[in-house]
Write a structure and sequence with these properties.
Blueprint (H helix, E strand, L loop, with lengths): L5 H10 L2 H6 L5 E3 L2 E4 L11 E4 L4 E4 L5 E2 L1 H9 L3 H11 L8 H5 L5 H19 L4 H9 L4 H6 L3 E3 L6 H6 L5 H6 L3 E3 L4 E3 L4 E7 L5 E7 L10 E3 L15 H11 L1 E5 L2 H9 L5 E3 L7 H8 L4 E4 L5 H16 L4 E3 L8 H8 L1 H9 L4 H8 L9 H16 L4 H15 L3 H18 L13 H15 L1 H10 L6 H17 L4 H7 L6 H10 L7 H29 L3 H19 L1
Parallel strand pairs: 12-13, 12-14, 14-15
Antiparallel strand pairs: 1-2, 2-3, 3-4, 4-5, 6-9, 7-8, 9-10, 10-11
Length: 582
């Protein structure tokens, strides 16, 4: 397990009180033996997460999220397991940090990340050399100083003979791997770097791994694209990344808000001016994957996209996507300059910060946008505008927002409240007509055997005495999954001489059975453990196992041609039936 043993992880877990750690993230209120809080893993409007101090686990009775202190931090912070362990350790004063090289050993893309990291270092070194003087001068003219260059790992691609291809081939990396990663191109007559004579901006994934590059011309070349980006590869999916996310994540949580801009130069400009809670789309449209990533931050969003028609339309579309996911959205529309980068360079950071003080909500921005290209002194345009506003608020579930908006329309345009409410009702009816009926999906109920086996395993994960009862009363499950988990539990007890659910969850972390274990933890309905309940489960599963065996023998008897063997099978069935009754 990376550079830390199971014993060390167990020690950290034992010393970290789950109540203290989770309380750093969400408010908890004591209710009886447990603590309750609003679950951060789904849109929870009333406390549905229970945290047990005795068991050192949490469970949401609404969405099913469950686990120990490490899984909570892992899912809340959106970090790898070892980083979650490090965060917990540091919170309780047990200094521990992950060894990136060790963690990468088990990563199937470790070579890809290694190559991209070396490529970045190569580009960074180029910028620092004498050959990088003109590029450094260009960056200085764009007010990108050495501090910003270092913070955002900006580099430079040169031309032959100082090629990235030569550098990486000399390190014995496979040529096909380099082409697959979008660093090298191969033609019939030559092999050459994809990026040459451009300033290089690295692109990171959510965990801070370099996965691609964006390269910008800087010497006034004509007939070439200003920017050239990495192609999509096995580790780089543009729609799944947000520029500066890994750097901004902690600042976003601290500020409880994230500023979204279009280009990485906007993000860099804000960051070097002290506004660190900023990420960039590298385009105009959010993808579903990016929205999911933003939603996990659980903060309000401030859209500060470019000051053009495309940026305005992107604000409308992206704001809608975010609001549909229950994210609170606000809008900053700068005036006079093309984008936040140019705005700050001309007006200063204080002017931009002034815009951030009281930004309009996305709803208010959207309502104002409906006035665009309309002459509200014209009756037809005014009627169209009011109808569009009413249609918009008919889509909202916020009754207070509806009432306030209707009241404002009535006062502003001297209209009757009754008239507006009546019109609103017609939009609601229209919406109901066209709204597709939700397909009812019935949750597949677990078979009695699986359900009972799950509960027995849940008992076993909580106390050694239940493991001993299993070995005495049952000893084995019919199916491979439950049998494998039971074997892991027995092995754990033999090794550590005891077992708790919180520790077993951590122990099973690198095992392929982890998902099955967490399903059992999530779905368990046992409120309180006691031996009588477990005895009943043993009786039930023994009967179910006998029933399954009888059915298996019946099928075997159907295809058996030897009468003597058929009689033996029938006798065996009778024996099992008798045992089942007893």
């Amino acid at each position: 397990m990376a550079n830390i043993s199971n014993e060390d992880i167990k020690t950290i877990r034992t010393n970290a009180n789950i109540i203290d750690i989770i309380s750093d993230y969400i408010p908890l209120t004591k209710r009886g033996k447990n603590f309750l809080g609003v679950c951060p893993f789904h849109e929870d409007h009333s406390p549905s997460m229970s945290v047990s101090e005795d068991k050192q686990i949490y469970k949401c009775f609404s969405c099913g999220a469950a686990g120990n202190v490490f899984t909570f931090v892992e899912n809340y912070e959106q970090v790898p397991f070892y980083e979650a362990v490090s965060i917990v350790a540091n919170k309780i004063g047990m200094k521990f940090s992950t060894n990136d090289k060790e963690v990468r050993k088990n990563n199937p893309h470790k070579i890809d990340y290694e190559i991209m990291s070396l490529a970045l270092k190569f580009y960074q070194n180029n910028l620092k050399t004498e050959l990088g003087a003109k590029a450094r001068q260009y960056l200085a003219e764009r007010h990108i100083d050495s501090e910003a260059i270092n913070e955002f790992c900006i580099g430079l691609s040169l031309d032959k003979p100082d090629s990235l291809y030569t550098f990486l081939i000399n390190k014995n990396y496979d040529l096909k791997k380099l082409t697959d990663l979008g660093l090298i191109n191969v033609s019939k007559s030559s092999v050459y770097d994809i990026f040459t004579k451009r300033i290089i901006f690295p692109l990171w994934d959510k965990n801070g791994e370099v996965v691609g590059f964006s390269a910008r011309v800087y010497r006034g070349e004509k007939d070439v694209s200003k920017y050239m980006n990495s192609k999509e590869t096995i580790i780089f999916k543009k729609g799944e990344t947000l520029y500066n996310y890994h750097n901004a994540k902690e600042h976003i949580k601290k500020e409880k808000s994230v500023i979204i801009v279009e280009g990485f130069m906007d993000a860099i400009r804000l960051s070097v001016n002290g506004v660190k809670n900023v990420i960039a789309l590298q385009g105009t449209a959010l993808t579903k994957e990016q929205v999911d990533l933003i939603k996990k931050l659980r903060v309000k969003v401030i859209l500060a996209l470019d000051n053009d028609n495309a940026g305005e339309m992107a604000t409308i579309n992206n704001g809608k996507m975010l609001e549909e996911q229950g994210i609170e959205v606000f809008v900053v529309r700068i005036s006079g300059e093309k984008d936040p980068d140019e705005y700050i360079l001309k007006n200063g950071i204080d002017a931009f910060l002034e815009n951030l003080k009281n930004p309009p909500s996305y709803f208010d921005f959207n309502i104002a946008y409906l006035k665009k290209n309309k002459n509200l002194n014209n009756s037809n345009d005014l009627a169209e505008y009011i109808n569009e506003v009413l249609k918009k608020i008919s889509e909202s579930d916020d009754e207070i927002l509806k009432a306030l908006t209707i009241k404002k329309l009535a006062q502003e345009y001297d209209l009757s409240l009754d008239l507006l409410n009546k019109k609103l009702t017609t939009f609601k009816k229209e919406e109901q007509k066209v709204k597709p009926q939700k397909k009812i999906v019935f949750k597949k109920e677990k078979k009695p055997y699986n359900k009972t086996a799950d509960e027995i395993l849940y008992f076993m994960m909580n106390d050694k005495k239940y493991v001993e009862m299993y070995l005495k009363k049952l000893g084995c499950f019919n199916d491979e999954i439950h049998r494998s988990i039971a074997n892991e539990i027995v092995y754990y007890c033999d090794k550590y001489k005891s077992i708790t659910l919180a520790d077993f969850i951590t122990y099973i972390n690198d095992n392929e059975l982890k998902d099955e274990v967490m399903k059992i933890v999530n779905s368990s309905v046992i409120a309180e453990l006691n031996e009588n309940i477990l005895e009943d489960y043993f009786k039930t599963i023994n009967k179910l196992m006998i029933k399954d065996k009888i059915n298996e023998l019946k099928e075997k008897m159907k295809i058996e041609l030897d009468d003597a063997k058929k009689i033996k099978i029938a006798e065996k069935i009778q024996e099992l039936k008798k045992g089942s009754v007893e």
